[in-house]
Amino acid sequence: MKLSKIYSRYSFLATFIVIVLCALTQYIIFESLANKTSDETLTDYKKNLLKMVAQKGRLVDDVELGIKKGRLIYKQYLPAGNERTQFNDTTIWHHKTQRYRSFRTITFPVKVQDKDYLTVILLRTMGKKDMMFATIFTFICIFLLLMLYIILMRGFITTKIWKPIKRFIDELGQASIHSDIKYEFTKSSVDEISQLEKAFMQMMNRIQRDFRKSKEWSENVTHEMQTPLTIMRSKIDLLLEMHQEDSKTIELLHIMQININRISLFNRSLMLLTRINNQQYDNKILCEFNRYIREKGEEYNEFFELKNITYTLKEDALFIHEIDEALLCILLNNIFSNAMRYTSKENGEIAVLIEENKICITNSYIGDIPEGDLFNRFNRSSSREDSTGLGLSIVKAIADLSELKVYARYTGSFFIFTIEKQGS
Fold this sequence. Notes:
Layout: H1 3-56, H2 62-65, E1 72-76, E2 86-94, E3 99-112, E4 115-124, H3 128-161, H4 163-173, H5 191-242, H6 247-277, E5 284-288, H7 289-299, H8 301-306, E6 309-315, E7 320-324, H9 325-342, E8 348-354, E9 358-364, H10 391-401, E10 404-410, E11 414-421
Parallel strand pairs: 6-8
Antiparallel strand pairs: 1-4, 2-3, 3-4, 5-7, 8-9, 9-11, 10-11
Helix pairs in contact: 1-3, 5-6, 6-10, 7-9, 9-10
């Protein structure tokens, strides 16, 4: 969800809550002030009435008091000794308007000519419903105006304030550690954005510099190792020719030759992993895996016959995916060589099943399985000392680069290796 939408959502919610709380607060304050004003007016009427009664010695009517007719009521009563002035709210039916009207009343005792009267003065006020309606209407108008302001501000923020952020995100999308470009972002008038861009620029340039140094170092190391290994291999070949009659020397030279070949293979594998991780293979094309697997099966056919392995291929659909062709060959070569190397010696079986979104390579296997993730570097079976432990690591690196998923599982007698398209 975009930041502007999140901002609008929380702004609407916060505004609504504030409006509701303000409306309730205003209603309470407004009602209190209205009652206070009415009570003060009624108190003045009471004082004037008591003063006039004392002067005239009789009850005065509403006209004399200066109020509308029918809003001054006297009721004779027997005093109980606890009478006091009281303020109340009441409603009276109005025949002309055919509705109830709200009044504020003051009730107090008056004594005239030894007779006690309970006096009630009524004052027309705004009803609670009317007051509530007025409050709600007012705050609805305020709320709509605030919403309009927020919408306008959202447009302003989106086009003005968030524009540098959008531009910065676009520039981030083009960033790559494999590029030699030095990042210099467009200057922004927003201080925080400028600081963020500056920090990212420094970090990206530092990462690129460190990456280049690491890349050069790994390439130099793997390349420089090849020369002494080649020299050592040629010298051993020469010694083998010179000591053909010395079986002990030949045996030692053969051991040295095997280990040198293993180091050379290990070095080439590390060099390949480095190139894959550095994304030096970037020529992706749509490849039909079925054809490459058929070709790979034909290449390994002699080895299958030599090891008495039964090989079967079942194609239920075409598996087509975008991948670098050279990496695809390496991927299949490592998988087939791994399957052939670890297939059980007696009545060995290798079966390949190709579906639209999945390829399964199954081989019969009896032996120990390394603990942990089989795709980790140097994780290999203890029964195969000739393994570098990098074969499946290379497969995993190629799969990640090509947006494929790879995983393996062991069922007790069969080892199943699976390739899937991401999202399938």
